[in-house]
Amino acid sequence: MTGSDNIKVCKSCGSSGRGNYCNQCGQSYKVKRITIQGLLRDILHFFTHIEKGFGFTLKQLIIAPGHMQRTYIEGKRSIHQRPFSMFFICATITALSRYWIISALIKYYHAGIIPEAKFFHEYMVVTYIALVPAYALITYLMFYKTKYNYAEIGVMMLYTLSFIFLVATIISLPKLVYPRLETRLVEFPVFTIYMIITLINFFKTIPWWIVAIKTVTIMIAAFFLNDLVEDIVIRLIA
């Protein structure tokens, strides 16, 4: 067998080469047939940018909060869902879930506020995208002496908020049975505990009790800012 037997021709640009991918355009030499499954996967990726790393990233946010964000920032990135994509997907899931829950409360219990439902349906994702820089700034100022810059803190917050959004959806589900349940009383301690664990693991060189105190301060400021902006937007909608 000669070396020329291993030469492959790219079906996209016509260039010849060896290996699995074309050296000119990057397309795989082996082209799979188009299938319905492949088309559905392409459509899903187009609208959500869900990659193979989504499930792995979500799992790491559950079992290793803080470690996951730190390893991503330090360079282990190819196996993770990208931060903005992860945030957008989780925020969208939460917004739609909250909208459906509030709509059900209005329909079956005559509870809830129509502008509030409209907020979660149309404005929540945009509102929280606008708030992320503020959350990141608060956290950065509390830990400005660490080695992480503002952008890296922002990435850490994007991943952390992604998981918090999904937890918020789960916490809201009991309102379908107990419509008068004040979910904020549950959200604050749950989110604060998760944030404390995350930041202790993320800022591993700082004593845990210092991180815990600063995290509680961050969460109080974040909840105040969140409620303020959310109420303003809902009043504008109303």
Write the layout of secondary structure elements.
Elements (H helix, E strand, L loop, with lengths): L7 E2 L6 E2 L18 H13 L4 H11 L3 H7 L9 H27 L4 H29 L7 H23 L11 H19 L5 H30 L1
Antiparallel strand pairs: 1-2
Helix pairs in contact: 4-5, 4-6, 5-6, 5-8, 6-7, 7-8
Q: Whole-number average pLDDT?
A: 85
Number of self-contained structural domains? 1
Biggest sheet, open or closed, and with what strands and sense?
Answer: 2 strands, antiparallel
How many beta strands in the DSSP annotation?
A: 2
Shape: globular
Structural class: mainly alpha
Q: Please estimate the helix content.
A: 55-70%
Strand content: under 5%
Low-confidence runs: none
Q: Widest sheet: strand order? A: 1-2
What would you report as the Rg, rounded to the nearest angstrom?
A: 23 Å
Count up the helices.
8
Order of helices and strands: EEHHHHHHHH
